[in-house]
Amino acid sequence: MSFLTIVYAFGFYGATALLVVGLVFKIRQYATTPAPLKIPTMPAPLTRQGVVLRMAREVMFFESLFKSNKWIWVFGVLFHAGLLLVVLRHLRYFTEPVWFWVVLIQPFGIYAGFAMVAGLAGLWARRILVDRVRYISSPSDHLMLALLSGIGVSGLMMKFVVHTDIIAVKAFFLGLLRFNIQPLPQDPALLLHLGLVLVLMIVFPYSKLLHAPGVFFSPSRNQVDDARDKRHLAPWAAELDAARDNAPATPAE
Amino acid sequence: MAKAPTFETPKYREDRANPVMVEGSMAHSQPFVAAPDHQTDLGFPGELVENWEEKAVEKLGDLLDKNKALRVYLDSCVKCGACTDKCHYYIGTGDPKNMPVARQDLLRSVYRRNFTLAGKLVPKLVGARDLDKNLLDDWYKYFHQCSQCRRCSVFCPYGIDTAEISMAARDIMDHIGVGQKYSNEIIAKVHKIGNNLGLPKPALIDTMEGLEEDVEEDTGVAVRFPVDEVGADVLLVTPSADFFAEPHVDGLIGYAKVFHQAGVKWTVSSYASEAANFAMFIGSYEQMHKVAARIRQAALDLGVKRVIFGECGHAWRVAYSFLNSLAGPWDFLDPRYPKPQHILEFTHDLIKNGGIKLDASANDDMVLTFHDSCNVARGSRMGDVEGGQFIIPREVIKASVNKFYDMDPSTTCEKTFCCGGGGGLLTDDLMELRVKGALPRMEALQAVVDNHGVTHMAAICAICKSQFAKVMPYYGFPMDMIVSVHQLVSNAIILGDNK
Fold it and tell me: Which ipTM score applies to this complex?
């Protein structure tokens, strides 16, 4: 067993643990922090089902972004839809036998890699070329694009330029799942690809990638417009009412 | 006040797709700081406390635990740029710190530095900063260049609402002793006297009696303007500007005529003689709660069955979206009516069921357009369908006038532009900001004036009305071009026998 295989194997165990623990912590924090007031961005749905639909349109079609800016929308959709297909396609390296529908999307998944990188390139170009976006960008915003582009490009390299021993890669990951570590091929493109994925997994819960769980907890998008019908009260705010109702009555004069 | 020639009214833009960026162009703009008295009246420290850096971070931590929106919004922004060209203050001033995301980042940088691992380990990399005097100055300046209109939240893919961020920032500043004079002085007046203007009961009664006389002289009909009438059915809570400012008071006359014609017994309260709740602007739940409690108390004391709000934008947001939380439960009111109700819902119902009759030809000397007020549009609803807040005012206007044209749809309904004076910024010390912030609305207005001969713009918000009356002359429009919606109703309503 080579040293690098050990590093990557334990790297993946560690990164997975950090990702899961970090995300569970943040999601629990979002879920348990009270929202003291009803603040849906109006017009908002009048029912819970309506809110589910609004949220679905938001996460599947980026509805608000579409209203805002068609360029960001196009690049954003290219990247996210591409990434989704690519991730699903990668399930083939973690399943044996490969699931039927994963086989079906395989041809699309390959081109999705190009869509993903093209979307990232578009977003990056905006970050550099549009003065407003340049102004609001921190180094970490560029690094995040570099990280994702690196993952995409190194992946495409392996597919189209310098092939790796994909059978061995699959054996490595199946081994990880079964706690039976198998040797990892030592191609530079593969090591770069997997190394960047490790970094991505680790920074996820500590970075702006939190927008992924965050959107579901956004009160302006997930609240029902029913403030007049149902009293909405945060536990800490209820204490103010108790003080009001127990105070000696103030005469109105 | 004379037109201060210290700034230029912005020109209508040729290229509306890309606002021109001018760094630092509004770095001189800030409202007067609250005097120690105005601070202590609200229970805030009188001046900047000694260990303010720590206290500010402590207060931020407190708000993060109490407000889901703040926590999620501070984490979720990806700096995509979708909001950057959406704020009327950025469009009007070009100052990049008026881009919603840049404004948020003034607070987000401190959040990251103190509450996130990345900000603690590699602050430079992720734009994390310690709160120092320079940054605090920027907070004071630029969180008072946000009218909390929520337009950016419409366009954000995560619904990040800069209003929530600027409310939190103002709350933190109040808690370290740096409040805004205009808002805090006004809130103290409400606590002491019952309204923003400091209008005491005798003056209120006098004003209302004067209106009774005026209307009777004008129409020959004895329309009542009751104050503190125990046993009235309806408590009308209206912005105190309605009692005397123009064109607000013409709206109040309109409400009175509608109540008269509908045969509904109503009253205003001298104890809760204010619909506005400026505590929303300073982001203080406790202060909002205290102001709203007066309305509850007045409704209980007067024994009313219904509470109806007059034309006021942020007041309607507080009433529609927050009042049940702040001052509920309202189980002592008549369950057959919304609690509370908007005067436009009330009038709209009467128009629909024939309870009042309107003669639209009474307004034939006017061609109307309608300005959706931001807090009504994006913070509330009217009626029982989604978007009723856009439909009902327009239907009431169209029933009252014959000639009506909407402005460019990218500037109306949920995409409406703020008048430029909302969010506690309607003060003379921010005149430059107010004039510049009105630019996108003025551009849209100019287009319907040119294309359709529009002569008047109706609004349903006391702040919008005051702001436009003051700012429109800078753009070459007469100040009386802004009218109340119920002023149109007032002109058109047929008083007397309903048959």
Answer: 0.95
